[in-house]
Every structure is written in structure tokens, then in C-alpha cells.
Write a structure and sequence with these properties.
With 292 residues, the chain is α/β, with parallel strands linked by helices. It contains 12 helices and 10 strands. Helices cover 49% and strands 15% of the residues. Pathway: Lipid metabolism; fatty acid beta-oxidation.
């Protein structure tokens, strides 16, 4: 496997076709610019570097925390520099455009898991603060340890959350009243409440080790399925979230008009009949160079 680990992100392959991505910036996984750039680049490059990746589990190396959110020291320096800028040589509209240029790549990095061809499973534990909620919202499946607790914290530092929480959470949970309450107040809510509103699909009794094990178990199950079927399902579900039923059915028809030609369907039928694991090609292979 290619060495995908970086200064603050640890990548391993605990099972065939399954990667474990762990946030590892001491002491609390505060996300600075270099960190989120590494994060986005990693998820954008996994398919190319490890073309037979079929599922990824996202977690943290620290037992008491998933992430403390944005690095406030760095953010403070940016705000201070803006506030102290010379009014004779700056213009509010142009400053706004500069901020726009900074926010867009940040958003793209945090939402990178949604654009992956494979499912990304968040396995969270301990504190999940601010940007951490944005990060897991862009994942396909979310599991939480029973010791996990969450907060949409941005309002306490004087801004609205802008990396995905406010876009994803109303659609994920279907509970606009609760999301508004949490976003307006920055109150903490436990894993049990996260499961009740649908933010996570499972609460695993215990902490980091237990929730990562549960997430890896479902990742390994997904890895036995046809990659064409899984990536198509991911794409169609994401489309359904943002479009009407009729629009999604039309998109599904167009998508499957191509995907029904896959050899994976015959392989699935034959492997099921023979009671053996299916043998599927990587999704993004170069013609003539791939092996089963």
C-alpha cells in the first residue's frame, strides 16, 4: 500500500480493501490550515494511490477526543491581521472576496469524503467539537462511542458554521428545531441524542477501540460487495438528497444505463451460487494493467 500518512494524519490498512484514517495532531486535533489541506488532499488521492480501496473508516488516535474543531490560535491571527489592516489601503468588499477565496478550498477539503467513490464511515468518540461535526456530516455512515458528545460550537466564537453542518444536518436529521437550538446555543448533546435524531446510526458501548472495531466490521462487509454497485448507490443517494423523486429517477435511469453493462453483475451471481467471495476489479484501473 502507498504511504498515505502525513504529519497529522495516520493511514493504515487493517483489513483487505479497507483503510483506517486517524486524525493525529497533538494534543486535541485542532484543525489548522495545513491540517485541513492534508485532509482534503488525502481523500482526493486515495482512489488513485490505492485503487482497490472499497471503504474507509475515519477516526482519531486520541482516546478522549475526535477533534476540538478549528485551531482558534491560527484563526485569531487571521482575524487580528484583518482588523489591523490599513483602512487607506484596503477595501471591505475586496477583503470579503479574499475571505471567499479562503473559505471555498476549506469547504472542499472538509466535504471531500462525500466525493469519494467509496463509502467513508466516521467512528467518533469523546468530544466532537465544531468543525468535527462538519467533518462527520460529509461521511456516508456515522457511528459513535457511548462516551461521545457533540457541539456545534461556531456561534461561541462569533460566526455561523460554514463548513457543512448547517447545510447537511437539517437533511441528515430532519429535525430543524433541534438543529437550530443546538446551532444557536452551542450546547453539548450526547451520543444517545445523536442517535435519536439520526446524526449517527449506531451508538457503540465503550470508547475509541470499540467504535473503531464496529466501524471496521461494517467496512469489511461493504468491501465484499461490487464496487460498481456500491459507488453507484452512493452517488444516487447523494443525488436523491438534493433533488426531487422524479429528478432522481431520471438520473438513476441514465446512470444505470451505463452501469448495467458491468461484469460485476455476473460475477455477483456466480460467486453467490458458488458460495465464494466475489472477485471485482478496482474502479479506476488502467486498461490492460489490472488483475483480479
Amino acid at each position: 500500500m502507498a504511504n498515505l500518512s502525513t504529519k497529522w494524519i495516520k493511514v493504515s490498512e487493517p483489513a483487505r480493501h479497507v483503510l483506517l484514517v486517524e486524525l493525529a495532531r497533538s494534543p486535541v486535533n485542532a484543525v489548522c490550515t495545513e491540517f485541513w489541506q492534508e485532509y482534503g488532499k488525502l481523500f482526493e488521492s486515495i482512489s488513485a494511490e490505492v485503487p482497490d480501496t472499497r471503504a474507509v473508516v475515519l477516526s482519531s488516535v486520541f482516546s478522549e477526543i475526535f477533534t476540538a474543531g478549528s485551531d482558534l490560535l491560527e484563526a485569531g491571527e487571521i482575524v487580528k491581521a484583518t482588523a489591523n489592516s490599513d483602512p487607506n489601503t484596503t477595501d471591505a468588499a475586496r477583503i470579503a472576496l479574499d475571505f471567499y477565496k479562503q473559505i471555498i478550498p476549506f469547504q472542499k477539503a472538509i466535504t471531500a469524503p462525500e466525493r469519494c467513490l467509496f463509502p467513508v464511515i466516521a467512528a467518533v468518540h469523546g468530544m466532537v467539537v465544531g468543525l468535527g461535526v462538519d467533518m462527520i456530516s460529509a461521511c456516508d455512515i456515522r457511528y459513535a462511542a457511548s462516551n461521545a458528545k457533540f457541539t456545534i460550537k461556531e456561534i461561541d466564537i462569533g460566526l455561523a458554521a460554514d463548513m457543512g453542518s448547517l447545510a447537511y444536518l437539517p437533511k441528515i436529521t430532519g429535525n430543524m428545531s433541534f438543529i437550530r437550538e443546538m446551532a444557536y446555543t452551542a450546547q453539548w448533546f450526547p451520543a444517545s441524542k445523536a442517535e435519536q435524531i439520526g446524526l449517527v446510526s449506531k451508538v457503540v458501548e465503550g470508547g475509541r477501540d470499540e467504535v473503531v472495531a464496529a466501524a471496521l466490521e461494517v467496512a469489511q462487509l461493504i468491501a465484499t460487495k461490487s464496487l460498481i454497485a456500491v459507488t453507484g448507490t452512493k452517488r444516487l443517494l447523494s443525488h436523491a438528497r438534493d433533488h426531487s423523486v422524479s429528478e432522481n429517477l431520471e438520473y438513476t435511469t441514465l446512470w444505470n444505463s451505463a452501469m448495467l453493462q458491468t461484469k460485476d453483475m455476473m460475477e455477483t451471481l456466480e460467486s453467490t451460487k458458488a458460495k465464494r467471495p466475489g472477485k471485482f476489479l478496482p474502479l479506476n484501473f488502467k486498461f490492460g494493467k489490472s488483475k483480479l
